[in-house]
Amino acid sequence: MKLFKAAILLSLFVSQAFAQENVQTAPKRQRIYSRDVRATSDMSVLVMPIGNGLFQRGGGITLSFFLATDHILELDLLKGELGYRVYRTELRSNGLNLHYKFFATNTFYVKSGIDYRTIESKRSDDDDWYSSDPYSYTFKGNSTSATVALGNQWQIGNFTLGADWVGLAIPFASRLTSEESSILTIQQRRDMEDEKNRTLNQDYLYVTRLYLGASF
Prior knowledge:
eight-stranded antiparallel barrel, 20% helix
């Protein structure tokens, strides 16, 4: 009798175990990570509407090529005004940048590369009624810098949103291509030389460059 009861209990236990395995449960919705989207993407097209740094009032477009899930090669085309704007000085620039972006986590990346920019600076005090020594000068040049930046990039489906939170550019080559001036004092010439050096050769730090676009 005891053996019979034990057999029944064992049978019920085994039946219950198989019943639990055969229960059909609704599949859980799988979370799609930014890294998963990058793994299936070939390239992206991004625009930078806001940049607080070299191109403060400018914009640009970026073409990104996905070499691997966590490795991206980027080409930037930028146009705008320089961030360190001087009183009565117009500083315009065009940029062509080549960057390598490595994702250390799902969204956080380190970016490094080369920035090339052409610069045109114009300053005129001819209209200053209070200036005893009105003058003007114009110069054009170019500069090549090594850059590094830290940021985050998110993928919401094919939509891309990201930001370079902080970056540093260190010029290692520059050239003055043209220069015109009507300068009357030694101090004014010093001001012009300082402006050329600051624009073409000085290291600069930029923060919060936002961009958005699509990956496919």
